[in-house]
Amino acid sequence: MSEAQAQQIKETNEEDWTKGKNPWLLALPTIFAAFMFVLDETIANVALPYMAGTFSVSREESTWILTSYLVASGITIPTVGWFSKLLGRKNFFCISLLVFIGASFACGISTSLGAMVLARIAQGFGGGSLLPISQAIMLEAFPKEQRGVAMAAFGMVVVTAPIIGPVVGGYITTNMSWHWIFFINLPIGIFAFFLARYLLEDPPYARKQSGVSIDGWGFFFLTVWLATLQVVLDKGNNADWFHAAWVVRVSIISVISLIMFVTIQLNSKKPLIDLSVFKDRNYLIGTFVQVIMQAILLGSLAILPQFLQMMLGYDAFLSGLTVMPRGFGAMTATILYAIFSNKVDNRILCAIGVILMGIAGLSFGFLNLDIATINVAIPNYIYGLGMALAMIPIITLSVITLKNEQMTNASGLQNLVKNVGGAIGTSIVTTMISRFSQMHQFMLVKNLTDLNPEFVARVAATKGALMQYATESVAEYMAQYSQYGALIKQSTLFGFIDAFRVFGLLAFSLVPLFFLLRVPKDTNKES
After folding, report:
1. Cα angle vertex 36, ends 32, 41, to 5°?
2. What is the pLDDT of residue 30?
3. For 20-214+272-440+492-514, which CATH class?
4. How do the domains of the chain map onto residue ranges?
5. How many helices (H) and strands (E) does the chain have?
6. How confident is the model over 357-389, as pLDDT tens digits?
7. From CA 236, how far away is CA 451, in angstroms rounded?
8. What are 163-196's pLDDT values in tens digits?
9. pLDDT band at 20 (very low <50, low <70, confident <90, very high)
10. What is the rounded CA–CA span in Å between residue 139 and residue 147?
11. What's the whole-model pTM score?
12. Which end of the chain is more exposed for a tag (fewer CB within 10 A), N or C?
């Protein structure tokens, strides 16, 4: 392509290719695709214990089903720009939908953990491009003055889908089987595919081009970095992290691969990812905030169903249903954003949102084993309200100073690092619960001694109740063991509580960052 042609493409604006077309028609297939992809980030959460039982693996090993999907999609995201130039963005979007649909079917028929992880990797590869392309199309199709409304609709999908995922997954798992949480992607995906074929159009800068080359070394080091990072995150806790030599070696490989990848991207004439967008302050800060929020969102959604099922005995559907108020909170936030987006500084809305997230996280930090469902529902509603109220405007603020031709690359890069943040949040939270539980167990075990009158009284009472069923020595042993079991349950409870509190404090720490963002003068004014 000549420089003159490239300049002509660069100067083409959104009106040239959306003229006469309703932008909501262009957005329709992308909304369905984005909903399906994001839904699958969390729909398997409540089904993990069931899948672990089917595959005869531990709870920790079953988290591969979640993180493999996130990391695989993260590897695909940087290739969005290259594949869009090679095939045309519309064609690549449709092919990705077909791969996602086929991989979803493979997930549903998997009979082992290995087969499931491979299918989830394929699903991540197919779905990795759906979200950044959808976000780019939504931003390009609408004029700048209408992007707030467009991002409200898109943000509602992105925030609500992972929240209702556990509800849908719990209902399907309880009433049918976990296999159907993947089979439901087939009708949604096929519908989105036909909508995309007939409604989508490519802007000039996203059409098929000749002479397209890929940064092979950049892609290689990106893949190695993400793959080794996932292995460390998923297996590090079981191996006692850096006390294991292999964890140290794999971590070194991961760090070197990351350094090599960044170095190649900064020095290549045709990089896989254009990192220059990070020079934009809004984009840099906005992306960092979204990474932390994604880690909080997926991390909290991963442990809450586990807490309800392990500690309170909820089934998959009921544990998923208790997460439903997050969806109502997100819907409420969407309505509030539509009302106040042009009247209130979006930075203030973001700050209010993360403050609400922090309050909800700390509220979860006061749970106990005698709570009612309402004690979980109210913090969940506040969580959803805060997450959506912060996420919707931050997406717009992070790219509001970028040009249209930068959107596909910027959206892809942003979703890449958000996926990494989500994978880290999902993996690290397991370690947090394990380590916090061990810490509290160490602190509480000193109370299980004959010098503690309360312990002696409880053992004696339990022993007396068991004497009619066993000999005195056996009853004594069972009584002491029951007290130790109660200690383990309490220490595990404290582990969950501490993890929720960490997420709450992490949300509060984001507040000052929003006021470092620049807002154009014509933004937040009532039209």
Report:
1. 150
2. 85
3. mainly alpha
4. 20-214+272-440+492-514, 215-271
5. 24, 0
6. 999 989 888 888 888 778 888 998 998 899 888
7. 39
8. 677 778 878 887 888 888 889 889 988 998 998 8
9. low
10. 6
11. 0.72
12. C
